[in-house]
Specification:
Elements (H helix, E strand, L loop, with lengths): L1 H7 L5 H10 L2 E6 L5 E4 L2 E2 L3 H5 L4 E2 L8 H12 L7 H4 L5 E2 L2 H22 L15 H14 L1 H7 L1 H9 L2 H6 L8 H16 L3 H15 L1
Antiparallel strand pairs: 1-2, 2-3, 4-5
C-alpha cells in the first residue's frame, strides 16, 4: 500500500521513501509510545492549535474538517491511553490527513532538517566538508538521525558520532549511530548507509580532503 502511494507521488525522493519506510504514513491522529499526539509521517502535533492548522478532512464525507471538529478530535485522542498501535486509534478518529498533504508536509520538514544540518556540518564547525558535499548515503543517514532525534539532540548528545563525522571516518560513524528507541531494522539501515560511504571511499581521497581543509583554514 505504501509503495503504491509513494509511486503516485511524482517528487518521491530517496529521502522521502526512506523516511516513509521507517516512520510509516498514518492518516489519522494517534499517540506514540511517549504519549505524543502524532499524525502523518511521524509528525508530532505539539498542541491543539497546531492540529487545527492541518488540512484535515472528514472520513465520512471527505469534506474539509471544521476547527471545532479538529478540536474535538484532538481532545478525544489526548484522553486515550498511550502505547497502543497506531491502527488501534483509528476507531476513535473521524478525521484524516490526505496522503498528498502528508507528502507536502514531509518535504517541508526534510528541507528544514537539511537546512539545519547544513548549518551544523560545515568547515566553520570543524568538519572537512559541508553537508551538501558529503556522500549521498551519509547525507541520508544524517537526515534520518536528525528527523528521528531532532537536530539539537544530534548536535549536543552524540559527541562520538560527531567526532567520527569530523574525521570522515564513516566506519566509526557506523559504529556510533545506533539509537535505543528505534527498530533494529532502522538502526541497521542507517549503519549500512555509513558503511556504503566507507566502501566507496579511499585513503588518497581522505588525505586530499584533509590537506585541502587545512589549506583552506590557513
Amino acid at each position: 500500500m505504501l509503495k503504491r502511494l509513494l509511486s503516485k507521488h511524482r517528487t518521491s525522493s530517496p529521502a522521502v521513501r526512506h523516511i516513509c519506510h521507517f516512520e510509516g504514513v498514518i492518516d489519522h491522529l494517534y499517540l506514540d509510545t511517549r504519549s505524543n499526539p502524532t499524525i502523518g509521517v511521524g509528525f508530532h502535533v505539539t498542541c491543539q492549535d497546531a492540529f487545527t492548522r492541518l488540512s484535515l478532512r472528514d472520513k465520512r464525507t471527505n469534506k474539509p474538517a471544521s476547527r471545532a471538529q479538529k478540536q474535538q478530535e484532538y481532545n478525544t485522542l489526548k484522553r486515550l491511553p498511550a502505547g497502543k498501535t497506531a491502527r488501534w486509534y483509528a476507531q476513535h478518529c473521524t478525521l484524516h490527513l490526505p496522503h498528498s498533504e502528508s507528502m507536502r508536509l514531509l518535504e517541508q520538514q526534510i528541507a528544514a532538517f537539511e537546512h539545519e544540518l547544513a548549518r551544523l556540518i560545515n568547515p566553520q564547525n570543524g568538519y572537512i566538508r559541508a553537508y551538501q558535499q558529503l556522500p549521498n548515503s551519509v547525507q541520508l543517514a544524517l537526515l534520518d538521525l536528525a528527523y528521528n532525534l531532532g537536530t539539537p539532540n544530534l548536535s549536543s548528545r552524540w559527541p562520538k558520532l560527531l567526532a567520527a563525522l569530523k574525521r570522515e571516518d564513516w566506519r566509526q560513524a557506523a559504529d556510533e549511530c545506533a539509537r535505543k528507541h528505534v527498530s533494529k531494522a532502522r538502526n541497521q539501515a542507517t549503519r549500512q548507509l555509513f558503511i556504503q560511504a566507507a566502501s566507496g571511499d579511499n585513503l588518497i581521497a581522505r588525505l586530499f580532503r584533509r590537506l585541502w581543509s587545512k589549506l583552506c583554514r590557513s
